[in-house]
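Review box. Two proteins, two foldings.
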Amino acid sequence: MDDLGMAVAVPETVRRIVSLVPSLTESVAATVPEALVGATDWCSHPADLDVTRVRGTKNPDLEAIKKLRPDVVLANAEENRPADLEALRAAGIAVWVTKIETLEEAFVSLERMFTYACRTDRPTWLDAAEAAWGEAAAEGRRRTAIIPIWRRPWMVVGRDTFTGDVLKHLGVDNLYAGHAERYPKIPLPELVECRADLVVLPDEPYAFSAADGPECFPGHSCALVSGRLLTWYGPSLVEAPERLRRDLGGG
């Protein structure tokens, strides 16, 4: 069963994997690189990744995927559209879907993915990631934050997100964690007036930078962070706690 509780007929031996999620692509490339045969155009890590590209996470080239004859396609409940995944299943392709909204879920889901969907051993980098986060317990005063992910219109991280849980482990509480939506559109004046301790500006999906974003929050403490370290679940989890804590101004 994948993370959605769906039975997946994965072959006993997996030699050909297509990944439709950037962080899962990086995970497979770091673990069983010889098996990775396809990935999306958005799969940017590792930098030297040399596999067939199958367009984006939301508009994958289904015919190109079929031609790759994958033993399994790796997907995510948030990143990929159910209709695309169902079309692949209808073509007789095994599709393994992850659902990850917390760090703890990431560790469990990734171990299951490698064991059952990729038919390989638990990777050593996953052990290192769990150890790194086990040592990252926040100490001292907690801070509140808003986490914009887009502008024009402004959108922020809301409820039940991996991003929010990562920050929580680092002592930063998302002010919009109780919002009814996962990624609500919030007018800029409201964001400015909420007086969060911190404005966290990642460089993806919107590429916030020193020249694009902080000027909208005068008088606020703004932290520019790596979107990959904040939102990806994979080998980046090993370095994420130390680097994010530094960039958030927490040591």
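Next protein.
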Amino acid sequence: MTPVPTPIPSRTQFVLDAIKHRILTGQLTPGQALVETELAAQFGVSKTPVREALKTLAGTGLVVMSQYKGVTVRMVDADMAREVYDVRLLLEPEALRRAVRRGASLADARDALTRADAATDTAERSLANREFHRSLYLPCGNPLLGRMLDEVRDQAALVSAVAWAADPSWEREAAEHREILRLALDGDADGAALALHAHIASFVQRAFPSATEVAEATEAAGNAKDPEGAVPHAEKGHR
């Protein structure tokens, strides 16, 4: 018999939702300390619901608990970003392909896209974008697949928040979202999945390029300034 999950007390849920919202919208930044007494005072609760909320957030990968540093918002680096987005690349396009093939309703995705386009601040737009992606994979017909993607959803949003703070790319991603949804609504399961794969891959490549990609970009920029830069170094010495 499957055990019934223990419901989270309302105060803990309130604190959990509030801290998560602050993290995913950039109000709490990676590496920032989360002090129980300060958070308890801000939310008007005791330290117990704060402590329980932070434990839950640690389990989802949004915060890190250290014996020496206490609790901090998780730092985002290239390795962490690529790990999270690798999971998305493996699972999310397939989930969308299945959702389209089974004729699932994508009304929630359309609504989320509309909210993102109408958003007046980055926090609202970020949350709408998260809902857009979730609305694409959730009706895939496999609840376990949906839960697996939900498990990395918060970490992916943290990566996105850090990337957007450094280099906002809302308009490009909005155009890609519209194309993904168009293909899905047209019933083109493979086309929608390919477009989603390209969308996810291009984002992490832009935000967290590998050392090889950085070197290639640097070399290309140098060649553009100096046409001779395109000539192999061995040949340059014999000009």
